[in-house]
Amino acid sequence: MEEACPxxxxxxxxxLSSRDVYQSFLETILQLSGSQIGYLHLVNQDExxxxxxxxxxxxxxxxxxxxxxxxxxxxxWADSIRQLKPVIHNNYQDIDESQKNGLPAGHFPVISHVxxxxxxxxQVIAVLGIGNSDLPYEQSFVEExxxxxxxxxxxxEEKIASTEQIESQLLARYESMPKQEVLLKMxxxxxxxxxxxxxxxxxxxxxxxxxxxxxxxxxxxxxRIIEAVTIGGLVHDIGxxxxxxxxxxxxxxxxxxxxxxxxxxxxxxxxxxxDIDLPFHLTEMIEQHHERLDGSGYPNGLKGEDISLEARIIxxxxxxxxxxxxxxxxxxxGREAAVAELKANRNIKYDVYVxxxxxxxxxxxxxxxxxxxxx
Length: 375
What we know:
Elements: H1 6-12, H2 18-33, E1 37-44, E2 47-53, H3 55-58, E3 68-70, H4 79-83, E4 87-89, E5 113-120, E6 123-131, H5 139-176, H6 179-191, H7 199-218, H8 223-235, H9 245-248, H10 256-262, H11 265-273, H12 282-288, H13 309-324, H14 335-344, H15 352-364
Antiparallel strand pairs: 1-2, 1-6, 2-3, 4-5, 5-6
Helix pairs in contact: 2-5, 7-8, 7-13, 7-15, 8-13, 11-12, 12-13, 13-14
């Protein structure tokens, strides 16, 4: 069977967040152009908002959070915005350094580069850059890629509109629903769970809630999502009520059947809240917090954008606290091991933007310094 065109595959996919839409479109253009690195940044009048970087870039530098700067401060990589046409640099390294201002600190090496302005009604609304192709970028090829980008941008806008519509509906419910009602519904569901029998799990959930909310705030996500991951973190392991305490606290290695029972807890927890109308994706956070980007997680083996952003945030917070905290039956691997795990599997199992926000927090947030989270 003939393989579908990358743009066709992009048009068929369902996305859960606007960032996933931008990321996927950028990767599609890189595939079509045979390029190794790229970026897609939004433009609002004379300000550029750094939005997404290509997967290859993540191997060379960290992502940038909340980074906006004036077009006048951008170097030649943004000339396409000023000139309203694609700009080619096949020997980027030979260009005078004084002209390259505006690149983020720790920028990845650029050998060749093309930037494309994305136009709407003669106004630049975004800039997409590609670079480091094995072959020089020929003018005719660049024009072909430029045509594909601008002709298919409506697909990006349609998918963004779809995600924003869902977000708008959730926001309307969030703003119209009294906080007391949300809490009452949460308590009603929790009453079905009898009680939190396990002291470790209770403390762990509180820690995950705190860390997840801090990550979401560092990523400058909407207040509704910050509150969502705060609540989601508090109950993400509630499904462990179905697991006998002797298994949860077992000092020896679990038998295969016992491990399979443990792996049921995300789905069982989600089922507790499945029929409750809440203004955020609570069931997804609970059911997906052990899913991993590469499909190696459980219970459903979801991959990439099929995992909600909120669940990706809780996954990082959960992994860190679980590894950094002692349990009744074993000492923790430790903070260093937890950080090493997140770094090693950054952009493999864990969302790169979430991991980088968390690593930034470790450096800047006094509450996350050693010894304080569990004081």
